[in-house]
Design brief:
mainly alpha; 4 helices; about 0% strand
């Protein structure tokens, strides 16, 4: 079962990277596209990790803490990436090509930030529930 979960996480990560890379367009150099993809995924990873840490800081999961954090973090990073990064990449591409004015690009960045904030807020409460569920399972087994 855990192998299936890891395969699904891998597929989601590949999809997030592929979508972001494709939405950056062929106008950019490959090196610049890869750098943009890596930076975008890294920022999403850091945000999800911080949200997880804040939401479960008062929950003692014992030995399961590391496994829970890895599964949750690596599951939600590609989901958030798929929801946010392709739109950001497309907007950036159009801005670089001159098809998108600076003001519209800033408005899209604000929209993306608000959407990401809403997603991370929902995940904050969801991570807390997952942590409490894992704690209940651990307590029941003792």
């Amino acid at each position: 079962m855990i192998l299936f979960i890891y395969v699904c996480i891998l597929v989601l990560n590949i999809l997030a990277v592929f979508l972001t890379y494709r939405f950056l367009g062929d106008e950019m150099e490959k090196k610049d596209r890869w750098i943009s993809v890596i930076i975008g995924i890294a920022i999403i990873y850091m945000l999800v990790t911080v949200v997880y840490w804040v939401s479960t800081k008062n929950i003692d999961l014992g030995g399961a803490e590391s496994t829970a954090q890895n599964l949750i973090t690596f599951s939600f990073v590609p989901v958030n990436g798929i929801l946010v990064l392709p739109f950001l990449a497309s907007s950036y591409r159009h801005f670089k090509l001159g098809n998108l004015k600076s003001k519209k690009f800033k408005n899209r960045l604000i929209l993306i930030t608000v959407v990401l904030f809403i997603i991370l807020t929902i995940e904050f409460f969801y991570f807390k529930d997952i942590g409490n569920g894992i704690l209940n399972i651990i307590s029941a087994k003792k």
